[in-house]
Design brief:
The protein has about 55 residues and is mainly α. The chain has 1 helix and no strands. Helices cover about 15% and strands about 0% of the residues.
């Protein structure tokens, strides 16, 4: 029958894993050290609102 196998250990309570939290991490350890460059212009230097007004205005 399923569920009748003997258990070596008592069942673990799910909340037991959250009773003791890990040590806090220092904020200095969470900051990346990668250099970043400027983000490319998604409009390619054009003004889409101006072009829309010229076409439809």
């Amino acid at each position: 029958m399923p569920g009748t196998e003997p258990r070596d250990q008592p069942p673990v309570e799910p909340a037991a894993a959250f009773r003791h939290l890990p040590e806090p991490i220092a904020l200095a350890d969470t900051v990346t050290g990668q250099d970043v460059g400027p983000v490319p212009d998604p409009d390619g230097g054009r003004d889409p609102n101006h072009e829309w007004m010229l076409r439809h205005g």
